[in-house]
Amino acid sequence: MEFKKNIPIYLQIMDKLKQDISLKVIEPGGKLMSTRELAVKLKVNPNTVSRVYRELESENIVFTKRGMGTFVVEDENILQNIKNNMANDIVVKFIRDMSNLNISPEEAIKMLKEIEEE
Predict the structure, then answer these.
(1) What gap in Å lies between CA 109 and CA 105, rounded to an integer?
(2) pLDDT in tens, 59-100
(3) Phi and psi, residue 76, nearest 5°
(4) Which of 64, 40, 50 has its CA nearest to residue 10?
(5) What CA–CA distance (Å, rounded) separates 101 from 81?
(6) C-beta neighbour count of 59 within 10 angstroms
(7) CB count, 10 Å around CB of 10?
(8) What Rg do the C-alpha atoms of the chain give, in angstroms?
(9) By Cβ atoms counted within 10 A, which residue in 2, 44, 68, 87 is the most buried?
(10) Dist CA 25 CA 16 (whole Å)
C-alpha cells in the first residue's frame, strides 16, 4: 500500500480496511490480521495499526475478543452503512471538485452519463 503524504497514515489504513470490509474481501465475522502482522505487512509502526483498530472499534465496525484477535461485525446494517458512507464521501468530493471547475451538478451528471454510454 502506498501512502499519500497529505493524509494521515492511520486514516488511509482505515479507509482501505473499510473498503475491504464493504467489498467482503474481509468477510463479516472474519478475523483481521494481528496488529503486528498488519504493521509488518504495511511497513508502519504497530501503534498506528493499534490506533486504526481502536478507531474501527469505536465506529462499531470491528470488535476484539481478548486473546483471540479483532473481528469484523456481522451486522448487515452496519456493513451497508460503511459502503453508503464511503460512496457518499466520493460523491461529495466529486461534486466539490466539479464545482471548483465551475461545472454545475447538472453538467457533471450529463458528463457522467456520456462517459457511461461510451
Answers:
(1) 6
(2) 999 999 999 999 999 999 999 999 999 999 999 999 999 999
(3) -60, -30
(4) 50
(5) 30
(6) 15
(7) 19
(8) 17
(9) 44
(10) 11
Which residues are registered as beta bridge partners of 65? 69
Q: What is the mean pLDDT of the chain?
A: 95
For residue 1, pLDDT beyond 90 = no
- How far is 37 from 32, CA to CA, in rounded Å? 10
Instruction: Quote the strand ranges of 1-118, DSSP E.
Output: 62-65, 69-72
Does 16 score more than 90 pLDDT? yes
Half-sphere exposure of 78 (CA within 13 A, CB side): 16
Query: Domains of the chain: which residue ranges?
Result: 9-74, 77-117
Residue 22 and residue 82 in contact, taking contact as beta carbons nearer than 8 Å: yes
CATH of domain 9-74: 1.10.10.10
- One-letter amino acid for residue 79 of the chain: L
Share of the chain above pLDDT 90, in %: 97
CA distance 50 to 54: 6
